[in-house]
Please model this.
Amino acid sequence: MSIFKNERGSVLSIEFLIVAMLLIFLVFGATDYWLLQVKMQQAEHIKNYYLDRIRVEGCLTSSDQAEMISRFQQAGFTVESIDAPTTRILRNIEDPTASEVWLRVDVKLNQKPFLLGSLLGEADHNGLIIKVAGRGLSERVDP
Model:
């Protein structure tokens, strides 16, 4: 029974537990941050594609809007709002500011990305909204 009375390793095991917990939190925290960055890049890529479509067409067409919402849903987002010109904006050489088109999309993640936040007691991730926006000059001229 002298095995149970030996306490030399108890301090070492407590130190190991503290260091292991810190390492686990760092690894999961970095992974969660990376996953969020990947999702933000996906949203930016989709936004850039449709901003280029708006530049060519002069406005966001209803078919492009439906396709954009579908692509966001396939990427794991729910579209909250879309702000884009709905009437055609033509290229104006005399006044370039009159030729400006824009696209702003607010999306929510369908899945919670933060496992570490749940472990630390973070209450609500449903309020996380990713906002992507861009501006450009219309390339559309009078037909």
